[in-house]
Specification:
110 residues; 4-stranded mixed β-sheet; 4 helices; globular
Length: 110
């Protein structure tokens, strides 16, 4: 998974996650996600670029939300890819994560 910072005015704390968020990448992804929490108090992570997500990836999103809240920060996930929505719904985490599940419209769910 790559964590790409958005550029431009008002882009501080805004990232786009791209690639796999799985058990195979979890160790490296964990470090990158936790480092990204060092930004401003309001963070937005766009999940449109997530191509595959499993239970380990979902656990990383939960960890990020928990760590943000512990640091009195707000973390919002936006523009969920079909892979992210599928994993979140399969694991019944939509209510726990607290973000509306919004597909980008660029991909179809199966």
């Amino acid at each position: 998974m790559e964590l790409r910072p958005k550029k431009g005015k008002g882009a501080a704390g805004r990232y786009r996650l791209e690639g796999e968020l799985t058990i195979y990448t979890a160790n490296d992804d964990r470090e990158a996600l936790l480092k990204a929490l060092d930004g401003p108090d309001e963070l937005e992570w766009n999940l449109a670029g997530i191509t595959e997500m499993d239970t380990a990836g979902a656990q990383l999103l939960i960890l990020a939300k928990r760590e943000a809240a512990a640091g009195t920060k707000t973390l919002v996930f936006t523009e969920h890819s079909a892979a992210a929505v599928e994993a979140i719904e399969l694991l019944n985490l939509a209510g726990h994560l607290g973000d509306p599940l919004v597909l980008t419209g660029k991909e179809k769910t199966t």
